[in-house]
Every structure is written in C-alpha cells, then in structure tokens.
Design a protein that fits this description.
One of its GO terms (biological process) is tricarboxylic acid cycle. Keywords: Oxidoreductase. InterPro entries: IsoCit/isopropylmalate_DH_CS (IPR019818), IsoPropMal-DH-like_dom (IPR024084). It comes from Fundicoccus ignavus. This protein is of the alpha/beta class and 331 residues long. The protein has 2 domains: 186 residues, Isopropylmalate Dehydrogenase, CATH 3.40.718; 130 residues, Isopropylmalate Dehydrogenase, CATH 3.40.718.10. The protein is built from 11 helices and 12 strands. The strands form 2 sheets. It has a 10-stranded mixed beta sheet, with helices on both faces. It has a two-stranded antiparallel sheet with strand order 6-7. It starts with a strand and ends with a helix.
Length: 331
Amino acid sequence: MRVTMIPGDGIGREIAQAMMQVVDASGAKIEWEIVHAGETVLQETGELVPQAVYDSLERNQIAIKGPITTPIGQGYRSVNVALRKKYDLYANVRPIRSVGQTPSLFEGLDLVLFRENTEDLYAGLEKKISDDEMHSIKVITRSASERIVKQAFDFAVSHQRRRVTVVTKANIMKLTDGLFLEVAREVAKAYPTIEFTEILVDNMAMQLVINPQQFDVIVTENLYGDILSDLMAGLVGGLGIIPGANLGRNMAIFEAVHGSAPDIAGKDLANPTALILSACLMLEHLNESEAASRIRQALDQVLSHPDNFTRDLGGHIGTTAFTNLILAAMQ
C-alpha cells in the first residue's frame, strides 16, 4: 500500500524518519511517497502546500503527516484546517490511552474522543460589524452531526466499548448545541446495546480530571473536542504520546497532534511516540492490525522503564536512541 508521507516542519522530519523505521520493521507492507509542505517549503518555493502534495493525497487517499507550522500574521490559513475542509475529513479521532509507565494522573486510562471536524465556530465564518464589534458564527447541521455521532457508535460496537457520551452546552446554545444533542439522542436509539449518556462541556472538564474512568467513547463538536482532547492528553502524559486521525469517506490523514517545536528541531531530542501511535491507527485502517499491535507492544515495553523516557516525559533519551529501543523490542 502506498502512503503519502508529509514530514512537516521543526521536529517533523526527525520523528517522521523514526516512525517510518518502526513501521518498516513491523512487517507492514507500506510504500512511502514523501512530499513536503509547511513553513520550510514556503520559504523555498513560495507555496505553503505545493500542488504535488494535493496530487499525492488524491492519488493515494491515505496519508500521515508530522506537525506543520502555519506562518502567523501573514494571512495563511492553517494547513490542517484547510486539508480537513478540502477533503471533508469530518471525523477527528483521538485515542487517549496510558502507555507504559509514562507520568500520568491516572493509570490504565483508555478513552476515545470523536470530534466533528468541519463546522462549528471553526468553520471560520466571521463578520466585522464595526471596529469595536466582531461576530463569529457557529454552524451546526443535522447531517454533519449525524455522521460523527454514528461514527462514534459504530466504533463502540466494533471495539466492544460499553458507553458513548455526548458533550454539548445545549442548556445555553439551545439551537445549535440543541440540534447536536437532538441528533445524538436519535442516533443512540439504533444502538440499544451501547449505553448513552449526555453531559455539559463545563461539567465534562471537571469530571475528566476527577474521574475519567467513568467515560469510554466521547463524541462532541469541533471547538469542545479541540479543547477537551488536549485536556485529556494531560491526563496520560501530554501531547507527545497522543495520536490522531482525520477520517472522511474517501480519504484518511493521520497525524501527531503536537506542534513543530522549532526550539528543539535538529537536536535529536524529540519524542516520536505520538507519530508512531498515529501510524498504528493508520495500519489498523489498512487492515494491518498485527503490525500495529507489534508496535504498540514494543512501545509499552520501552516506556515501562523511566530510563527510556524522552525529555518531555522527564527523561534524557534522544530521538535516535528511543527509536532504536523500540526496534530492539520489536525483534
């Protein structure tokens, strides 16, 4: 299977190389088509996302990418947001799972967040009323709400999950969030074996830091999902170990959700775990589940020893040494 690989900026190229080494060693049959986008490419070519990237994506229909820097204050739109909208990647999926013995507030956590990826306030519909008043328009549609909620329930069924929780602020935003909640209630009726619960987003934030084990699969709107996924990452050790998937009907793009960390780029300090786990999601999507399981087991083994932690986890191991430990554990 040919996969588009977009290394990205900053630490992207280092962690991309580490990820490809690990995937190649897993036994998965992947052919990498490497194309470049981001701030570095912009400086070289004048294009943030060259046409070659779009051509590769449309040819392969599946991709994995490192962190991409969007220049600030120059009128450029986030590459991540642009790709999600261009290819209707409506489902952002972020598993929040304890890995090894990484520093975390809770042990054995295993949650999955489904975030609607195309509308809400992130649709970017803003209007200037005057120099002193700006409006941002929140858009929630029945069709987009229905497909993300169905995706969450289908996942729960296929992965033997027990509960789906919908997160809104429907007590205040009675029309927009009210519609999302109404749709979730209707969809839930078709899945009688899955427990359905609903919660307001402010209470959800509190409950996640008090007792996250009460949740299982979580589905929510775009803005809430963005905020809650970072909060949840903090429960298990940070963004350095959280993978992500952006799924549409005809395309899937997998990515580490952390930034490009230019301050440590090229210093062999970056933690490649998030991108490696994103590759595991990709492998499962490609029916290479055995290879994904092999990688996850190696990661759990390596990260069960604090001496193997990278700097972001409180250790001293560099990117290359960490990658070599994973390769050795896989053997």
